[in-house]
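Sequence only, no structure available. Ideas?
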Amino acid sequence: MRVLVVGGGITGGVLALALAQNNVEVVVAELRETLGGVGHGITLQGNALKAFHAVGVYDELAEHGFAFDKLRMFRADGVQLMEMPAPPMGGDAVPPTMGALRADLAGILARRVREAGVDVRLGTTVTAIDDRGDEVVATLSDGSTETVDLVVGADGIRSAVRSMIGIDVQPKPVGMGIWRVVARRPAAMDSSGVYYGGPKFKAGYTPISDELCYAFLLEENLDRAYVGEHPNGKILKEHGQGYGGVWGEVRDSLADDAIVNYQYIEAILIEGPWHRGRTVVIGDAAHACPPLIAQGAAMCAEDAVVLAEMLTSGAPVDAVLPAFHARRIPRVKMVLDNSLQLAEWEIHPDTPGADPGRIMGQTLGALCAPA
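Reply:
I predicted one. C-alpha cells follow.
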C-alpha cells in the first residue's frame, strides 16, 4: 500500500508514523517549511496519550510533560468549587492527563516520522487529485505527481483537500476567542484548573513541565489585529483582571512584552461521509471542536491510529473508508456537541440548567470506552 498524507501536524504525523510502522509506504506533503509546532501549551487527556503510546512516542513525551489525575474548578476569586478526578481514558499504561508544550510534541513526532522512513516533502502541498478508481494520481505544488492507493487530507480546519473533493462544509465561529500564554508554573499548581463567574467567559491553566504552565483566557471575539502570536503580555494582564487564586498569580508574573497567542474559536463537523473515492479527510479537516473539554488533539490522534489500524487489517480501501466513518462519527459528534454546549453556557452563564461539571464528567466518562 502507498498513501499520501497531506498535512504534517499531529493528525498527519501520527497517521504517517502508524502506517510506516506497519510497512506502508507513506509520503507526507506539508505546506510549511518545518514540521515544528507553535510554542504554547496543550492539555492531553488519557485517550490522546493512549494514541501516542500506540505509535511509540508517549515515553519520550512524558520526559518533557507534566502528568496529573484531576481537574479543579474555582470561582473567579480563587475559591475552589469542586475537584473532579480525571477518568482513566487511556487505560493503565498512561496517566489520566498530561500537560505539554505543543512544540515538544511536534518535534518528537517530526523526528520519529523521518526515522520511520516516511518521505517528507516540506514546502509542498497537493494541487490536483485524479481518482482513477483503483488508484489516485495526486499532483503536488512542486510539479511532481504521486500515484497512491489513498490520499488523506490531514490539513486542518481550513482543509484544501476537503474543498478539492467537493465537501462544501466550512468552519463556523463559536462566538469566543482564546488567549494562550506559557509562563512559570507556581508550586501550588499540580493539575488543570478552570475559573468561572469572572468578567470574561472563563480562565484556566495546565501545568506543562516542572517549570512551566500554560494559561488561557476565553472572551468574546476581539479585533482581528490581536490574532496570532504577539508581545501582548500587558494586554492579556489587563483583560485578565478580576481573577484571583493561582490564575491571578500567573497573570501577574507575565512581562508586559510576553509572547501571547490569540485565536478565534471555530468549529466544524462533516456529518456525512468523510471520503470521496480514494480520498478521505480526518482530524480537524473533518471535525474540529472548541477546546472546552481539551479533546481536539485527542480526537485527531484517535482518528489517525484507528484509520491506520483499519487500513492495515487486510480489508480493501473502499470498504475501510465508510467503516472508518461509521466507527468515528458517534464519538467525535458527542465531543463536538458537548463542547458547543459548554461554549453556549459560558457565553450565556445564566442559562437555566447550565451544569458544566456534569457535561464534562459525562463526556470524559464516555471516552473511557475504546476508540
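The chain has a mean pLDDT of 96.
Hope that gets you unstuck.
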